[in-house]
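Quick log. Single chain, no ligands specified.
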Amino acid sequence: MRFSIKRLSTYITTIFGLLFIYLFVNFSNFRIRYSDYMIHYSLTKENFKQSDDITRNSIHYTNYEFSLMEEFSKMHDPATFKKNGLSERCGVFFDFFDKKDKDWKLRTFDDATFDKNIVHKNSYFKDELNKLYKTKKNSADPHPDIVTRKENVTINNMFLKRVRETKITENLMADSTTLLRIYGQCFINGPNVGHNEELQETFNRYSRKMFPFFTNKLPVFEGINDEIIEKSFPNMQNGYNGENYEFDGKNVVDFIKRSSNGKGIVISASSSHVKDLVKLIQLLRAMNNEFPIQIVYKGDLNNRAKSNIINAATGEFKDIIDPKNKASSHPESIEASILNNTEKYGSKFPKQDLWFVNIRETIKRNYKYSFPGYTNKILALLFTSFKEVILMDADTIPLVPLQDFFETQEYKETSTMFFKDRSLRDLNDYLETNYFTKLCPTSVNSMDSLFDVKPITNHTLSNPYMTGYRHYQEAGVVMIDKSKHFLGILMMFPLAVWKEPVRSSIWGEKEMYWLGMSIAGDENYQFNKYSAASIGEIVTNPKHKHYPDSDASEICSSHPGHVDKYGRLLWINSGFKYCKKNTHFRDRNKFPFETFLVEEIANLYDSPLKIKHGIVPPDLPILRRPGSPFELRNENLIKDDWKERTKDMDELSDEESIKHKQKEKVNPQKGWNKNSICSSYQYCAYDIIDSHPHNDGSVEKGHKFVFDDELVSEYDYLGSIWINGRTKSSV
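-> predicted structure:
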């Protein structure tokens, strides 16, 4: 083959051109990587901020990929694989995964590193330097406040190691939730695999791997007529008529999904909750409740407590209120109020269908400490025999018949009904919202997509928690149909056993209900329209208002309540007493009680809450844009605006709050102000606040609800029932 000089010259020029482009691109990438690398090793505050930006970008959920995705895709072309039936895909995947990691099981990650300060390098350095100063002082170092270059480098290397380890932990956790979603698609949401012995065996085996803390035993159901059920679920759907399927001991997850039945109330409790339980059950009787009740406990409900609860559920009306009691003859007594109103409100006080459910043997003993107290509610939700569940706290106060909850549009459309918490200006962190998003299905080209799991949407990504606020859900009442959202319930268990970052990112278990569902790829849930309201009476005396010159209405209360879209008050939390803490003497010198007699405060605290009004403050602005963007410009602008504003009452120092007990000639800046009344359980709510971000006199408005006299009278009656509830044990 003959080449002309011209053609040869063209070839050489092309080759050198391509080589130049290759070297330029790679050198540019090298420069960027080198620049990023050097930022991590520069120890100035400005470089700390740049380091945080780089780390936030590197851990962003969009960069996550299931650890075996690339290898699996090389063996099974994704486009071809997706054309196979679900059963075939499931068999292929779990066969592949068994070969890659046959000993895998869900980890608690107790021994793993997860450090939230990887995106707060300055804070990390401050903490480590303080430790270093302390060590030097204790060792009589002549210069304890001097830090050498070598010591700084050591701390920096420690920091970079924490970054690497935290990234590994986070990705392993995301791998775990990905696996659980595939398990769910194959065995929970998909067709029954019972006809396929091989898949059923895989289902049984992976149920033990996914939930290694379960003993594969059922709870013990104890009926109040000495009925004991240990190897099956009671049939609650048809008045106990019907076949009880006995558990074969192979797969407790499968059994619970297939055998849950009926509707009912579930309360997680121990002996310490007995007083509230007795009051709640008597209140339910006054409201003619017909739903069965299961009290779920972990071996920590003694016989005396059970006896008290049984008496409350089945005792005669005279045991609840004795008409011959001298106090009942007084026209203003609580007893008289009850006696005079039972007929008016149609209270029949039916005996309750009560069960105790002991879940102690359902959890392996070596996992005992993996489930702290608040996670008992998650265990109760799973192990109750009910299919449709009203999960309640012992101090919850329903104010409408429970059947009305099942009749809400939200429940009818989604088989869930969740309730929003107070819209407090308590903030979470980028790392937290990014972490939870990473646990969710987020990509159309992921391992999830091979099993038809759809990415989450703004239904999750734009909610208040995911856009920057600590509190979204209040879990005093949770309604859910287990059979329709079973994988979402199962997904709560990794969250329950993972200590960090979960336990420091959410309050108890309360955000786990919607999180579990979203992580499962199930966004078919709905919240009540309004955030929690402050329930009580609007302050009318300017001398008792924290903002006496403001047009804002003010309710100071320790009781959050939940008003539906029609203005009905569905329920309140924290019992029915004005204050559930015995702090009247301690509060006597606090505003607005300085002018009250101690006896007046004591009587107020022990009395039922007077329910006349509710205030839902204005909504909060979106702090962090949906999708957890790694640049924080919008977030920082809003925070800077808040810093420039007038301090609210709960932002004053102790010295300032003693000097200024009221804020005159200003509006509140936040919808909720916390105070120290009632052991700091009390919050003051406002329906008008200064507008964000314009500090120009414009305001934002929330919602004010006024309950009519007939409702107020009914609430008084129900409050009397609850306050009068007493423990009366036969043991």
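The longest helix spans residues 149-188.
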